[in-house]
Automatic annotation (TrEMBL):
<dbReference type="GO" id="GO:0004984">
    <property type="term" value="F:olfactory receptor activity"/>
</dbReference>
<keyword id="KW-0716">Sensory transduction</keyword>
<dbReference type="InterPro" id="IPR004117">
    <property type="entry name" value="7tm6_olfct_rcpt"/>
</dbReference>
<dbReference type="GO" id="GO:0007165">
    <property type="term" value="P:signal transduction"/>
</dbReference>
<keyword id="KW-0807">Transducer</keyword>
<keyword id="KW-1003">Cell membrane</keyword>
<feature type="transmembrane region" description="Helical">
    <location>
        <begin position="23"/>
        <end position="44"/>
    </location>
</feature>
<protein>
    <submittedName>
        <fullName>Odorant receptor 49</fullName>
    </submittedName>
</protein>
<dbReference type="Pfam" id="PF02949">
    <property type="entry name" value="7tm_6"/>
</dbReference>
<keyword id="KW-0472">Membrane</keyword>
<keyword id="KW-1133">Transmembrane helix</keyword>
<keyword id="KW-0812">Transmembrane</keyword>
<dbReference type="GO" id="GO:0005549">
    <property type="term" value="F:odorant binding"/>
</dbReference>
<dbReference type="GO" id="GO:0005886">
    <property type="term" value="C:plasma membrane"/>
</dbReference>
<keyword id="KW-0675">Receptor</keyword>
<keyword id="KW-0552">Olfaction</keyword>
<feature type="transmembrane region" description="Helical">
    <location>
        <begin position="111"/>
        <end position="129"/>
    </location>
</feature>
Length: 239
């Protein structure tokens, strides 16, 4: 007769082992979810800081300094400095675009599932809040309210981070306008025009070739669709 390996998992020490393993898996799941959600704002904040540094460098173009030699030699030195600064600015902007594309590629494989689940959670939480609260305890109402605002805040902040990246391009354009570009040589002005052409396009976080573009307009669209979904469910329940 073969020995039986069946054990009752409700008896010690099997219960404690299973409980610890489940607690560990749940902890790791929430930890990875928090890291996944917070990674984009952290990287976007860092990229936005780099854009501010670029703005200060652009505003310094053409700024004349005190020169103890002839004006011609001073202009020559200033032109060389502006060319070197413009080369560094252009390279830094290229690196920022590359970093943003890497960030988008990192989240592209599962971003559709995240967006779908987030939109579904937003609609369901809104639907639960709009139900009659006479038969629901105050604690449950408080819990549903916290869940709804948590889902709404993290989704809105993700769209806000995308808007921050788009505003960075506008900041570069304003920095170029506020610089002393009219004092620069034609070569530097031409490079500055090339940079301005690059910052004229939107710079939102987008996935799947622009099928999903995070912005405040997109967040408002999700709110409208969720509200229509809630009204549809309420009409069906009444009918």
């Amino acid at each position: 007769v073969l020995p039986s390996f069946h054990r009752d998992d409700s008896e010690p020490p099997y219960y404690q082992v299973i409980f610890v393993m489940e607690f560990y898996l749940i902890f790791m799941f929430f930890l990875m979810a928090i890291l996944s959600v917070s990674l984009i704002p952290m990287l976007v904040t860092h990229i936005a800081g780099q854009y501010e540094i670029l703005c200060k460098q652009i505003q310094g173009l053409g700024r004349q300094e005190i020169c103890i030699v002839s004006d011609k030699a001073c202009r020559r030195v200033q032109d060389l400095q502006d060319r070197e600064s413009m080369r560094n600015i252009y390279q830094a902007h290229t690196n920022l675009i590359y970093a943003q594309s890497k960030l988008q590629n990192l989240y592209s494989p599962n971003m559709f599932i995240k967006v779908l689940l987030n939109n579904l959670l937003f609609a369901l939480c809104l639907y639960q809040l709009t139900l009659s609260t006479t038969t629901v305890s105050k604690f449950r109402v408080y819990k549903l309210t916290v869940e709804f605002f948590t889902v709404a805040f993290q989704f809105y902040y993700l769209c806000h981070c995308s808007e921050m990246l788009d505003d960075c391009n506008s900041q570069l354009g304003r920095a170029a306008w506020n610089s002393y570009w009219y004092r620069c040589s034609r070569h530097v002005q031409k490079d500055l025009m090339m940079l301005l052409r690059r910052v004229q396009v939107p710079n939102h976080l987008k996935f799947y070739e622009g099928a999903i573009v995070f912005s405040r307009v997109y967040f408002l669209g999700v709110v409208k669709v969720s509200y229509s979904f809630v009204n549809c469910l309420r009409m069906k329940s009444r009918g």
